[in-house]
Amino acid sequence: PQSVTILMKGPNKHTLNQIKDAVRDGLRAVKNAIEDGCVVPGAGAFEVAAHAALKKYLETVKGRARLGIQAYADGMLVIPKVLAQNAGHDPQDMMVKLLEECANGQQVGLDCESGEPCVPVTQGIYDNYRVKKQMINSCTVIASNLLLVDEIMRAGLSSLKG
Predict the structure, then answer these.
(1) What is the mean pLDDT of each run of 10 residues along the chain (162 residues)?
(2) How far apart are CA 80 and CA 86, in angstroms?
(3) pTM above 0.70, yes or no
(4) With helix as H, strand as E and coil as C, how does 92-128 read?
(5) Cβ contacts of residue 61 below 8 Å, gap of 6+?
(6) Whose CA is closest to 136, among 79, 64, 63?
C-alpha cells in the first residue's frame, strides 16, 4: 500500500499527543533503518565499545590531547549510565560490569530488566546508525564551541588585566 491510516484513541488530548509522538518516532526509526541500510547494537553497547576504543587510542597519544580524548571517552558513558539509572539500577555498579565484560572482548549493553550486561544483538536491541552518527557529530561540535567560548573568555579577561 502507498498510504496507511492509523486510528489513535486516548482519554485526553495530552495522552493522544504522547501516542502520536511515539508512533511518529517509531515510524521514523524504521524509515531511518531502511534508508541507512544498517543498525548498530543498542542498550548502550555502542557507547561502551566507543569508550573502550578511545581508551585504547589514548595509549598512543602524548601531551594535552590526552585530556580531551579522556574526557570524550568518559562522556560516551553517559548514555549507559542514564539507562541504568532510569531502569532503577545503580549506575556505578552497572558501569563496572559493562566495562569488565567489554574488556573481555564482548560487545555488551545493559539489560534494563535484570541489570546485567547483555549482548544486545541476541536480544534484538538495536539503535539507528544515523542517530549515533549525529550524536558523535553534535558532541564534537558542542565541545568545540565550548572550548572556543572558553578561549574567548580567557582572552577577554587577559585584555582587561593588561
Answers:
(1) 86 95 94 93 92 92 88 91 92 91 88 90 92 90 84 74 62
(2) 10
(3) yes
(4) HHHHHHHHHHHHCCCCCEECCCCCCEECHHHHCCEEE
(5) 69
(6) 79
